[in-house]
Structure formats: C-alpha cells, structure tokens
Design goal:
alpha+beta; two-stranded antiparallel sheet; four-stranded antiparallel β-sheet; 8 helices
Length: 246
C-alpha cells in the first residue's frame, strides 16, 4: 500500500497561506486572495476578516445543505462556516504554488454573516492538518484513491462508513467521495484514514476499480474528478488571475 507523502507539501502550503493572510496586503483589506495550485481556491476578505473560502476541491454550502430546502439564517451561517473551514483545509492539503491578492471583491455563493479572524482560520486549519498527519495512515484527499478490502468485517458500521464504502470504487479519492456523499472533505478523509488502519479499505492504483461486495456502490460518474472540477462546478469563479510581468 503506497500513501502519498503529506508533511512537506502541506507545510509549504500552510506557510504560504499563513504568510499571505497575515501579510501587509491582507491586513484590514477588502478583496480576494487567490491561492494558485491544485486544487487552489479563493479567500474573500472584508476589512481584513475572512467571510468565505472557496475551492474547487471541496463541496460548497449548497452541496452541504443537500435537499433540505430553505434553511434559517443561523443555520446558513453555520453551513457557510463549515464550508469555509473545509475549503481552507482542502487548499492546504493540496499543492499551493502562490498567493495573489487583488482588491477586487467577487460574488460568493454563500458568505458568513460574521467574518472570521484570519489567525483563527489558520489555527483551525493547522489543527485539522495536524490531526490528519497524526493518524497511522494519513491519506492525501486529492491523490490517494481508496477501495474496500474483500472479506473485511462490514458489520455494525456507522452511517458515514457505509457511505464511504459505497462510494469507494477504487477510482475516487476521499475528496471525490465527499462530493459524492454531500459531506465535507475533512471528516470523510479522517474516517477513511481510520478505515484503512482498521483493514476495511486499502489504497489502490488509480487504474484499479474494486467494488464493495456487500454494500451498494454508487455508479454515478457525474461526480467531478480533479480536472473536471474547475469546469463543471465553478467554470468562471476559479479562473486564475494573470500574473504581472516583472
């Protein structure tokens, strides 16, 4: 079983994001911090506070609310905060290359009603990354594809574990499974790591397809994979800004 190394890449991504969020350009600023890379994302700032973080690598508020219909303002703020923290985790767990701040304010699907201090956002992101790296089998949510282990004991599984196994075809990463199940990337990734450690799942080559023998497998191939995420979910939102020539 080969697991993608996480520590060096996530440390670089975190340091890059921390430097940009606490730097002079972002201090008390209103605008957008573009995080370039895979999956990359955008951090929306208002008077120096974070009102929204979006990434093509994590489900947004609309995906997390699912089919619940109209929800109240308080619950909407909670969902927006969940999506913001998950997007920040997803960005740092990926491969960040650069951060570019622009004073341009862009529309967001759902912004938090109260801004989050950048330092608090970074602290929570650091906590999540540290929790992931502390596990016996830390997985990259963007690179490691998982599949069920044949013959594993599938009795008395939690609902989350059942959903993960149902979507773990061997083609999908934990990020893909999160989109398929309408859940945040972080809890899906953490639980998948534990399932690998428990012998319920294994990391497989991207070309191998293994279906769960005892649980229904979701065959919906409309779940966006890494390259199609930018085009199918947010076709214009995550267009990377042009860099100025020196």
């Amino acid at each position: 079983m080969r697991v993608t190394p996480l520590k060096s890449a996530t440390q670089f991504s975190f340091d890059l994001l921390a430097g940009a969020l606490t730097g002079r350009d972002a201090a008390r600023a209103t605008g957008t911090l573009h995080v370039l890379g895979n999956p990359g994302g955008r951090i929306h700032l208002r008077d120096g506070g974070v009102v929204c973080v979006e990434s093509p690598g994590s489900p947004g508020p609309e995906a997390l609310t699912g089919t619940r219909g109209r929800i109240g303002e308080t619950e909407l703020h909670v969902v927006a905060m969940m999506a913001t923290h998950d997007a920040a985790f997803t960005v740092v767990a990926g491969d960040a290359e650069d951060c570019v701040f622009t004073p341009q304010t862009l529309d967001t699907a759902v912004a938090m009603s109260a801004a989050v201090d950048p330092v608090r956002l970074l602290q929570e992101t650091s906590r999540r990354i540290s929790s992931l790296l502390a596990l016996p089998c830390p997985l990259s949510p963007h690179h490691d594809r998982v599949a069920p282990v044949h013959g594993a004991d599938l009795h008395d599984l939690s609902r989350l574990r059942e959903e993960i196994l149902a979507h773990a075809t061997g083609r999908r990463t934990t990020r893909d499974i999160a989109f398929a199940s309408g859940r945040s990337v972080y809890p899906v990734t953490i639980e998948a790591c534990r399932m690998v450690a428990d012998g319920l799942m294994t990391v497989v080559p991207a070309t191998t397809v293994i279906a769960s023998p005892r649980l229904p497998v979701c065959e919906d191939d409309d779940v966006p994979l890494p390259r199609s995420l930018r085009h199918q979910l947010l076709p214009k939102l995550f267009k990377q800004p042009e860099r100025k020539k020196p």
